[in-house]
Amino acid sequence: MIEKEPTRRAAPSRVTRQMLLYFGGLIAVYVIAVIAFWNAEPKDGVFIFVMFAPTVGALLARFFGHGKIQFGRPGWWLLAGLIPAVAVLLFYSLGTLFGVDSLDPGTLVKALIASPLAIFTASLTAIGEEIGWRGFLWPTHREENSFLRTAVILVIVWWIYHIPLILFGWYGTISGIPAFTVAIIGFVLFIGVITDRARSLWPSVIAHGAWNGLVSTGFAVTTINGSQLQAFTGSNTWVGEFGWLAAFGSLIVGVAATIWHFRRSPFASNK
């Protein structure tokens, strides 16, 4: 199916102003957070501030640039937000068959039982990003651009957003950037689909929360003394959000969802 060209376009000057306000606010909060927590240990503070930087940008664009934040309503699409985490769980499990990671079945059972709480907790910070990414940036660009063009924009922005923290050595690993990039591509495609379908940012919050709370930790369980036991263990090359198992799971889900999205209805166009 060939995408139709968008039929409605916002005034270029207005969109430009919104983007300047959005990225100006995001970058300002990001830089202030990095400077403020440069010597702090652990780096929890910088992550919290950085994750809410997109929200600050979205609010500036909303109130000073007449932009719109698409909150929408929670619905059954919330359950679709769990699909990437489930897909990665399957890939982690397959990895054990090929010896690239190891599984502790008892810990996995505990992690799955505790997963609603883990997802909810991680979603409390993930919403800080999603208000900016899928609440403002995605729908704003979808008014102007096709699905794939908007996805490319989000992939580039989201990738750049993470890179400074990686280069500083605070988040992930430099060697894991290729796998992380593949994971981002798949994730942006999948969340783009469910955002278009739901007309809501809440499914993306669940997807992001499930990723941060389950995938990135190797489906870990927090013990009474505060330490974490991982259900899936192995090298960073394979396990975690900078590992290839998560990257493959994310990409397959994202591509499959996009193909389905284009074939099933005109949602993939701007209408």
**Order of neighbouring strands in the sheet with most strands:** 1-4
What is the beta-strand fraction? under 5%
Low-confidence stretches: 1-7
Query: What class, by secondary structure content?
Result: mainly alpha
- Helix coverage percent of residues? 55-70%
Q: List the domain count as a whole number.
A: 1
* Order of H and E elements: HHHHHEHHHHEEEH
Mass-distribution shape: globular
Overall strand count: 4
Q: What is the mean pLDDT?
A: 92
Distance between the termini: 15 Å
Outline the secondary-structure elements.
Layout: H1 12-36, H2 44-51, H3 53-64, H4 77-80, H5 83-97, E1 102-103, H6 105-142, H7 147-167, H8 177-198, H9 202-215, E2 220-222, E3 228-230, E4 232-233, H10 244-264
Antiparallel strand pairs: 1-4, 2-3
